[in-house]
Design a protein that fits this description.
With 110 residues, the protein is of the alpha+beta class. The protein is built from two helices and five strands. It comes from Aquamicrobium zhengzhouense.
Length: 110
């Protein structure tokens, strides 16, 4: 049985439930922002190995890229720091519509 948004009001609660169900899970956390980033430091997104997710690190601007990276983190069990913004090489692929920049730490949970 998969947890729905109504059953898990936040990313950490969903992570606990999903881990209890035997899913492989990663947690993405905003660790730094510049300018007008859409989510504050501490905002979180939980992702399972199937790409299910709950939470937000950017209000929808870069979640797709974070989910893809999180699936790699789950498979490799190697945390990483991601950086997104309009002034880096990812600006043409993904970007923050508000013009800010964010750094996101992605780690596998056990």
């Amino acid at each position: 049985m998969h947890t729905t948004i109504d059953e898990a009001p936040d990313a950490l609660t969903a992570a606990e439930v999903w881990l209890g169900e035997g899913r492989k899970v990663a947690l993405a956390t905003v660790i730094e922002t510049w300018g007008s980033a859409p989510r504050p430091v501490g905002s979180q997104l939980v992702i399972d190995s199937d790409g299910n997710f709950l939470g937000s690190v950017s209000g929808g601007c870069v979640e797709g890229a974070v989910i893809t990276e999180a699936q790699d983190v789950i498979a490799e069990n190697q945390p990483r720091i991601l950086e997104f913004g309009v002034a880096d090489e990812t600006a043409w692929r993904v970007g923050l519509s508000c013009g800010g920049r964010i750094r996101v730490y992605v780690e596998r949970l056990s």
